[in-house]
Amino acid sequence: MEMANVLHMNGGLEDTSYAMNSLLQRKGISRTLPITKETVVKLMRSSSFPKGRLVMADLGCASGPNTLLLVSEVIKAVHKLSRELGQECPELQVFLNDLPGNDFNNVFTSIQGFKENMKKEMGEPNSEPPLMISIVGVPGSFYDRLFLTDSLHFIHSSYSLHWRSRVPQGLEENKGNIYLTSSSPPGVLEAYCKQFQTDFSSFLKFRSQELVTGGRMVLTIPARRGEQHSEKECCYLLMSMALNQMILAMQGLIDQQKLDSFNLPLYMPSAMEVETEVRKQGSFAIEHLELWDMDWNVYEGEANLAGDGGYNLSKCMEAVFDPVIAHHFHLSREITDEVFKRYALLLSDWMAKVSPAFVSLTVSLTKRH
Questions:
Q1: What are phi and psi of 177, to 5 degrees?
Q2: CA–CA distances in Å: residue 145 to residues 5, 140, 201
Q3: According to the per-residue pLDDT averaged within each range, which of 3-17, 90-104, 250-264, 329-343 is highest?
Q4: Sheet arrangement for strand 211-222
């Protein structure tokens, strides 16, 4: 399955949309903001940075309230440092990238209001020269070239690089599973690892061509703490259980052959795997790398949003995985809703017994000379 034509988050502003169910990703962006801001400040203080313009790209931007959150924080950091240095704020060129199926219309309708609010927030609605912010959408896969050579100063990507460019080949024996589990044959693990290595190496190679020397990246990736994959299997094992329940409950709508051939185009790497590929590719120096956790119950502690953790997490997962599942099984929205209702019950039962956490990896990279 080629992901460029299939993979996208649920668009719009409906109950199952990504815009309404992306708090987990928002918390991830907020958690890593200090690293992002520090990286941008170091970039601007470096001798290789041209003082008049900052060109950045957010890869895997999706749509909804998170899309411009990172951009706003970068702009504020640039503006603050410019004032501290007694310099004019550089012109800001922002490229928002995602696959063609992304709801770019939702993004574009919010841009003008966003720019006006940013200028007011920084106290410069009528300043001379005015604060110049240009925001452009760039559809396409970040496993291909996207931008001109030596055209970018800063690249950011959050919760996107675990997606593979395609479902790995050689997963025929992974029957009954939709991702890696402890019961998956060794060849399945090898196929997923190989696809990650191929994709991430391509990502690094193309970004090295697009970034100026000394340019920087901050990447946040769903990951795992150790070399074993068992810590990540529960979330997707429960999803496969929900699909199996639908086979029994609604015969003919989801058949076993379809389920046996369904594998998610994902891979959650370890820190060692990421480091190995960065060093092997050779274009970047690692400035900072850390693993950190976030509770599965993403609404915990959120005023007026608390509730059943399994239901909340299921809504987040539906916003992300509904298009892929609907495409593979040719299901209506009503049927996929039923799948995720069953998934929510399984998650709630699991979360009542344990306190699982999402593991994420954040790495800051600088392009070598």
A1: -115, 155
A2: 17, 9, 13
A3: 90-104
A4: 133-139, 91-98, 53-59, 152-158, 211-222, 357-367, 284-295
Residues contacting residue 350 through CB under 8 Å, at least 6 positions apart: 234, 238, 310, 356
Instruction: Name residues whose C-beta falls within 8 Å of residue 113's C-beta, 6 or more positions apart in sequence.
Output: none
Instruction: Give the separation between CA 67 and CA 110, rounded to whole angstroms.
Output: 10
User: Which residue carries 């399994």 as its tokens?
Assistant: 310
- What is the DSSP code (8-state) at residue 163? B
Q: Quote the pLDDT of residue 148.
A: 97
Q: Is residue 315 within 8 Å of residue 16, measured between CB atoms?
A: yes
Whose CA is closest to 19, among 104, 93, 97? 104
Please work out, in degrees rounded to the nearest 5, the angle formed at the alpha carbon of residue 34 by the alpha carbons of 58 and 207: 30
- Note the pLDDT of residue 360: 92
End-to-end CA distance of the chain: 37
Contacts of 205 (CB under 8 A, 6+ apart): 281, 283
- What is the bridge-based pairing of β-strands 152-158 and 53-59? parallel
| Per-residue pLDDT tens digits for 44-77 | 898 777 778 999 999 998 877 788 889 999 998 9
| Burial (Cβ within 10 Å: 0-12, 13-18, ≥19) of residue 157 | buried
Is residue 330 within 8 Å of 28, Cβ to Cβ?
A: no
Of the candidates 282, 274, 267, the residue with the CA atom closest to the CA atom of residue 362:
274
Amino acid letter for position 359: V
Are the CB atoms for 92 and 50 separated by under 8 Å? no
Question: What's the whole-model pTM score?
Answer: 0.90
Beta strands in 46-116 (DSSP E): 53-59, 91-98
Right CATH for 3-367 from 3.40.190.290, 3.40.190.10, 3.30.70.1050, 3.40.50.150? 3.40.50.150
Maximum Cα interatomic distance, the chain, rounded to a whole number of Å: 69
Q: Are 219 and 59 in contact (CB under 8 A)?
A: no
Buried b or exposed e, range 179-195, using 16+ CB within 10 angstroms: bbbeebeeebbebbbeb
Identify which of 267, 143, 152, 280 has the alpha carbon closest to the alpha carbon of residue 217: 152
